[in-house]
Amino acid sequence: MLGPVILAASRSDRMRRLVSAAPVTKQVVDRFIAGEDVDDVVPVIRELTGQGLELTMDVVGEDITNPAQAAAARDAYLELIDRLKPLELGTRAEMSVKLSMFGQALDGGHELALANVRPVVEAAAEIGTTVTLDAEDHTTLDSMFAIHEELRKDFPQTGCVIQAYLFRTEADARRLAANGSRVRLVKGAYKEPGSVAYLDKREVDRAYVRILGALMEGEGYPMIGSHDPRLIAIGQELAHRAGRKLDEYEFQMLYGIRTEEHLRLAAEGHRMRVYTAYGTDWYGYFMRRLAEKPANLRFFARSMLTKG
């Protein structure tokens, strides 16, 4: 299994230097990363929304080592919101945030992350949109869910992400579905031990279907984060069985992956949201995209061989 090896490489400074220095890397990264700054990404936002798609914007970056960097991450999102305001897209362009970028792993990180993310959520609400809290490794989740609960007191539209490969997630999903949360369900893209997560792909898929069924039957708003055609079809069937209308759930896929499927779902009337990342600190995000799907790794390796 190459996935765990790639995930380990995502935290290696040596691999970061090697991958970043490869001549072909930029052209491959451009498949998954929409640009380096907000000026790059605004035309992408216009293009995708013009095609009937919706977006969730992610400013990439994970190696936060001091409060000043966490504040800079907050400010990057506030700049994005300022640029979104004149576009008047409302919830067609929301934001995804990783609390690690807001200082969650630092001393006093829970309070620091909450203090940094709150003004982003407030500013998003002022322009008619919202924020989803991304899930990271399992050690961070209790803090993430507590921050999510706190933010929902004033901003009930704040979403969160759950990961099907974790044993705890079925219970988390039922709790979130009961309280009406917006929930994105993904398989999971972090290296986790067998003590907390399913390691077999078939078990992860089965858990995904069980959890998605619970979300569809609940009171919240399910967001189906998958590129798997079988899971997409199952999601449509579960939504139908639950009596959900097309605007009562949505699909989410990554920028640069299965683009034709994005357009097909949107053309059928589904809400189709593209997870669109941008920024200069792309390495960790990029390596997890390679780990998630063998086709992504093959694409990178083929490009290295033909263009390097």
UniProtKB/TrEMBL annotation:
The keyword Methyltransferase does not apply. This is proline dehydrogenase. Substrate binds at K98, R288, R289. Its EC number is 1.5.5.2. Binds 1 FAD per subunit. Gene3D superfamilies: 3.20.20.220. It catalyses: L-proline + a quinone = (S)-1-pyrroline-5-carboxylate + a quinol + H(+). The keyword Flavoprotein applies. FAD binds at Q163, K187, G188, A189, K201, S226, H227. Its cofactor is FAD. Residues 44-301 form the Proline dehydrogenase domain. Keywords: FAD, Flavoprotein, Nucleotide-binding, Oxidoreductase, Proline metabolism. GO terms for biological process: L-proline catabolic process to L-glutamate. It comes from the Bacteria. It comes from Streptomyces azureus. The lineage of its organism: Bacteria, Bacillati, Actinomycetota, Actinomycetes, Kitasatosporales. Pathway: Amino-acid degradation; L-proline degradation into L-glutamate; L-glutamate from L-proline: step 1/2. One of its GO terms (molecular function) is nucleotide binding.
